[in-house]
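Email to the structure team, subject: Platelet-activating factor acetylhydrolase model.

Hi all, the expression group asked for a predicted structure before they design truncation constructs. Nothing fancy, just the tokens so they can compare against earlier work. One-line instruction: predict Platelet-activating factor acetylhydrolase, return tokens.
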Amino acid sequence: MRLLPPALGASPGPARLGGVTPGLPVKAPMEMWTNSTERFYRIPEGKGPHSVGCTDLMTENAVEGSFLRLYYPARDATDTEEARWIPDREYYQGLSDFLNMYRIVGERLFHYYVGSVTCPAKSNAAFKPGEKYPLLIFSHGLGAFRTIYSAICIEMASQGFIVAAVEHRDESASATYYCKRRSVSESQEESTSNMEKEWIYYRKLKTGEEERCLRHKQVQQRAQECIKALNLILKISSGEEVTNVLHSDFDWNSLKDSVDTSRIAVMGHSFGGATVIESLSKEIRFRCGIALDVWMLPVGDDIYQNSVQQPLLFINSEKFQWADNILKIKKLISNDANKKMITIKGSVHQSFPDFTFVSGGIIARFFKLKGEIDPNEAIDISNHASLAFLQKHLSLKKDFDKWDSLVDGIGPNVIPGSNIDISPAEPE
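Reply from the structure team: attached below.
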């Protein structure tokens, strides 16, 4: 059975879709979109002691450069606006393509429902200096992009992490872009910028194309992009000048000596979870990793031959996983006590991205964006388990160890291991 990826993740097939699936009717019933109460939902704020800022960074005028959103502990400021959650209309178009909706329909719907949504982080707020912060590189899922895991990234930043959320350019994002210089004739008017955005949209499988081959190639590029982002942030922390082609007001020099280079981790969701595994195998500076509802198909066979030495936490949803995927996770865990797997009861694949917070009941049911558990409780369990795991394996001097039991799958709405039965079938 070919593995069909839902939006922002992946899945083993139509009967088990845990997220949004491509192949939706191109004209969803319009009455689903007319309840104005659907619009009044909000991404949760960080619960840690730090205010949170965010800013975008793009290097080089080419597709080979880095593109990321940085979330960071910020100085308290009341005069700074929150960042737009989805910053360009082209992302609506990309999501529409990914969901097999007409662009004109999807763009209108996304703009109406989430066009005014902001994430609870101050745009380009002044960085809060005075200590060295651990660094977390975040990798998004299939059909996603850098901004839509802000609930996780903001919580981590509020707890004292610098978080670099990479936007991948391997054609697995719904949409992304790089900046290129306009030709002389195009930029002769003084009011016209000499830069323009070159958009890259999600690439669907071609007829007869083997999915595993494509996804394995993509995951290797994704891992390199995570390592490139790591190098970029460490370069900035060392005091080197970096040119941001996006020309934001953020003072990148304020990040000098801000990163604790001995405390670096990598985290991701679904395809991003596979990216975590691939990144750990390639880069020893990542001291540990966290894979949220991982999709194992892209992971190469060589990875299972003891190539991931670092501690690794798998946090799964209840509704997404299936036997073959769990068997691969268990093969990777083997008998390593520093590799753990837990499952959040009542959760779905879309319990990790932000869409679960900004969708009301009707839309959430149609797109399977919410599970039986309250979205805020599900993300708290995931974040608390992540923080406890990071404290242990990055040797942090925090109080996150109060959530240690969650890492062992002990607590309300969490179980150790998986809810999936992988025992061999009884012979008849």
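The domain at 52-181+195-416 is CATH 3.40.50.1820 (Rossmann fold). The two ends are 24 Å apart (CA to CA). Ping us if the truncation boundaries need rechecking.
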